[in-house]
Amino acid sequence: MGGLPADKVGRDVIVTWKSYDIDNNKTFYTDSNGLEMQKRILNFKESYNFSTFEQISGNYYPINSAIAIVDSKSQLQMTVLNDRSQGGAVLEKGKIELMQ
Fold first, then answer.
1. Reading across the β-sheet that carries 14-18, which strands appear in turn?
2. Can you give the pTM of this predicted structure?
3. Longest Cα pair distance anywhere in the chain, in angstroms?
4. Hey, how many other C-beta atoms are within 10 angstroms of the C-beta on 94?
5. Secondary structure (DSSP) of 7-59
6. Domain map (residue ranges) of the chain
């Protein structure tokens, strides 16, 4: 990735991976400090009623080593491994994104 302009304008740099064959049904998995994968559901929190106007940032999670989506019907899986901690989300069907 090349440099960004030094014009003092804030930017988000996102890298995305898309699979047209995977229907993850709004579910994805993130690692928990490299120990185990945690199930995440888009716009849902198990411990409280999720309500926000920030749909993107409210669904981002820390990704220490991996983020994955799984299609349980076709048994397809896509996993992205990263070499440093980043923020990640799955906001659309079959699409993983990591914030650089």
1. 14-18, 95-99, 86-92, 61-63
2. 0.83
3. 47
4. 17
5. SS-----EEEEE-TT---TTEEEEESTTS-EEEEETTBBTTB----S-TTGGG
6. 14-99
74 sits in the region (left: phi over 0; alpha: psi -120 to 50; else beta) called alpha
Of 31, 4, 41, whose CA–CA distance to 86 is shortest? 31
pLDDT tens per residue, range 5-53: 778 887 778 899 999 999 999 999 999 777 889 999 988 777 777 667 7
Take residue 46 and report the two structure tokens written for it.
Answer: 């198990």
Q: What is the DSSP letter of 94?
A: T
Tell me the per-residue pLDDT of 51-88, one tens digit each, with 9 for 90 and over.
Answer: 677 778 888 999 999 999 999 999 999 999 998 899 99
